Model the fold of this input.
Amino acid sequence: MLAIRFCIGVGIALSSTTGLSLTLIESQALQNAVLSAEALNEARILYSENAVERAKIIDGITVTHLYHDRKGAIPNPATYTIELGGRISADNPGTLVRLYSDFPFGYRKATGGPKDAFQKEAIGYLRKHPKQAFFRKEKLEDRISFRYAEAIIMEPSCIACHNTHPDSPKKDWKVGDVRGVLGITQSLDSFIAQTHDSLKITFIMLAGISVLALSGIALVIGVCVKPPRN
Done:
C-alpha cells in the first residue's frame, strides 16, 4: 500500500507540473502580447502627434496612404502602423501583427476587414467591452498559437479624417468609438518545445527518485517480512 500511494503521489506531481507549465506558457504569451500592443500603440500615437500633426502645417507635405507614389508625402498613422506590423511579422516567423476593422476604408476593403471567426468575434466583443482584451489559444495553420486583440479607440485627431474622407464607409464616428482592432498572433511552438525539454529533465529526476524510493521500500519490506533464523 505504501508503494502504491507513493506512485500515485508521483503521478499527481507530474500531472500538476505539466498543467502548471501550460498555464505559465499562456500567461507569458499574454504578457508578451500586451507589451507588444502597448509599444505599437505608443509608436502610433507618437508618430501621429509629433510627425503627422507637424507635417500638416508645412506646405508641400501631404499625409496619405499613397505616400509611396507621391513626392513629399508621408504615411497616415494607420498606414504607418500597418506597415510597421508587417515588418514585425516578416522579421519574426510565427508572429502576425494586424490592424483590422468592420468599417475599413474603401481602398482597404479587400485587406482591412476581419478574415476569420476569431477576428469577427474580437470586434463584436471589443465593441461591448472596449477597455478589455480578447484572447485565446487555438490551432492556426498547424501551429498552436496565442491570439490577442484589443480595441483601437477613435481619438479627436482622427474624427475629421474618418468623417469627411470620400472613401470612409462610416461618417458619424464619435470620440471613444471602437474604430478597429489591433491583433497580435504568436506561435507557442517554441515555448512548448522549451517547456517539454525542461519537463523531460524533471521527469527523469522524479523517475530516478522514485526508483530509489521504491527500492528502499522494497528493502525495508524484505527485511521486515524475512523469517527469523533458528
Q: What stands out?
A: The chain is about 55% helix and 15% strand. The longest helix spans residues 2-55. The chain has a mean pLDDT of 82. Helices lie at 2-55, 77-91, 117-128, 156-164, 189-225.
